Structure of COBRA-like protein:
Amino acid sequence: MEPRCSVLVLTLAAALSVAGAYDPLDPNGNITIKWDIMSWTPDGYVAVVTINNFQMYRQIMAPGWTVGWTWAKKEVIWSMVGAQATEQGDCSRFKGNIPHCCKRTPAVVDLLPGVPYNQQIANCCRGGVISAYGQDPGAAVAAFQVSVGQAGTTNRTVKVPKNFTLLGPGPGYTCGPAKIVPSTVFLTPDRRRKTQALMTWNVTCTYSQHLASKYPSCCVSFSSFYNDTIVPCAKCACGCVHKTCVQGDSKRPLAVTGKHEHAHAVAAARGHRDKEAPLLQCTTHMCPVRVHWHVKLNYKEYWRAKIAITNFNYRMNYTQWTLVAQHPNLDNITEVFSFDYKPVVAYGSINDTAMFYGLKYFNDHLMQAGPYGNVQSEVLMRKDAGTFTFRQGWAFPRKVYFNGDECQMPPPDAYPYLPNAALPAPAASLGAAVVAVVAFLVLVMV
Ligand SMILES: *[C@@H]1O[C@H](CO)[C@@H](O)[C@H](O)[C@H]1NC(C)=O
Ligand SMILES: *[C@@H]1O[C@H](CO)[C@@H](O)[C@H](O)[C@H]1NC(C)=O
Ligand SMILES: *[C@@H]1O[C@H](CO)[C@@H](O)[C@H](O)[C@H]1NC(C)=O
Ligand SMILES: *[C@@H]1O[C@H](CO)[C@@H](O)[C@H](O)[C@H]1NC(C)=O
Ligand SMILES: *[C@@H]1O[C@H](CO)[C@@H](O)[C@H](O)[C@H]1NC(C)=O
Ligand SMILES: *[C@@H]1O[C@H](CO)[C@@H](O)[C@H](O)[C@H]1NC(C)=O
Ligand SMILES: *[C@@H]1O[C@H](CO)[C@@H](O)[C@H](O)[C@H]1NC(C)=O
Ligand SMILES: *[C@@H]1O[C@H](CO)[C@@H](O)[C@H](O)[C@H]1NC(C)=O
């Protein structure tokens, strides 16, 4: 009976993880796009659009967000402040005043920092970069103002736009329908008067790594003081097919799989976007980023792990990077050296996940591949006598995310084990025990 249960459990787990837009470490993480109509105009309205990133550890990096939608009727954008539509579209039917954008499906991007003040509004103009909420809640928001024409001019005749899309900057987000919600209430700067939007609608967008890319974008390697085996990232952890790389310092492109011509064709087809495609240093894992977890020291009451993040992409400086690790001892962090740190408590009482990020002006930029392309830290944890052990790979993290994407772990049977441990069998029996316990719970709950 037990094997059948475990198959059921595994199938369930697989189904849940494929279901996509759900991150077990940040179950409430989403990006909301809120439209507040601030005034009516003779042929439409002026709205302030606010993009809030409620994700704990997933930011939007340069070159930034693109928000798109489909107008419900024949609306046009007369003007924008704090952002711009990427294409004007066909405005030939207009005489005199020409709209900013006549496309039925506008795509809007942020302005760059330093635009003239008369083109700015609060929280605009950061080149589309939005911080993760857990790292910097004050910068986890973006906003722009849009003046819409040929639209309804009362809350009953306005039609909400449809089919919202969000690139952050690449694919991965799926947006739900716009929902009319109670009007936002604003407090005046002196906090003595409240005003409210004439009408408000919200759109919620969620992230799914499967939509963002077929392969992981980072991998994890392990080592320990008690075993001199270094467990590397799995071979081709981030996919080898159609990828080119450059050897060490030569910077001469190499095809990894002999599919060079195809890679070139794809790159050529992508045109200028190729500049944003990674230029990887050749490795066996072919990941742009590797996270190494080293179990470094064992004290009587504490133990110490060293974490190093290495960038293998010559075309990317990661600014405001984030690292998330899940390990049962992270609720007893005593000290974190040279990284900043915050617990991520997704489920009330379970405190086994921590977010690490760089110290401002010190190591919050993970430089492009090369001699400076790494950052590192050490974490001191207090042992909990009830759970602590070096056996069976316990000292290694269960999950690791870099910039909000889950990293590929080494296979469970490859973890470094204690020299006196008999065979790799204990790890397998631990796995079986976990499955049995989960199966038991499922049986109890059903
Ligand atoms: C979006 O995130 C916020 C903040 O975590 C949460 O309150 C809200 O329920 C989420 N919305 C949806 C539709 O999940
Ligand atoms: C539209 O405005 C009327 C009052 O002018 C109000 O009663 C109604 O709730 C509003 N509807 C929406 C969808 O905001
Ligand atoms: C919205 O997208 C769906 C599916 O992509 C499509 O069937 C529908 O026609 C679109 N609606 C509009 C108004 O473009
Ligand atoms: C709409 O989004 C805002 C954040 O942008 C949020 O504070 C508010 O609770 C949302 N309203 C609803 C009804 O989801
Ligand atoms: C990364 O930053 C360094 C120093 O600021 C700069 O010299 C380099 O060109 C940057 N690389 C990329 C790919 O932006
Ligand atoms: C989680 O653990 C950290 C120490 O690692 C502690 O500072 C924090 O207060 C804990 N949070 C909760 C909700 O238990
Ligand atoms: C570890 O953290 C948990 C929860 O914060 C706490 O109950 C426990 O006493 C801590 N253990 C040690 C050894 O500090
Ligand atoms: C270290 O761990 C590896 C598994 O990763 C194992 O093959 C090896 O025998 C271990 N070394 C010792 C000295 O036990």
About this structure: The domain at 24-211 is CATH 2.60.40.290 (Immunoglobulin-like). The chain has two domains: 24-211, 215-414. The first strand starts at residue 31 and ends at 41. The pocket of 2-acetamido-2-deoxy-beta-D-glucopyranose (ligand 5) is lined by residues 315-317, 367-368 (CB under 6 Å).
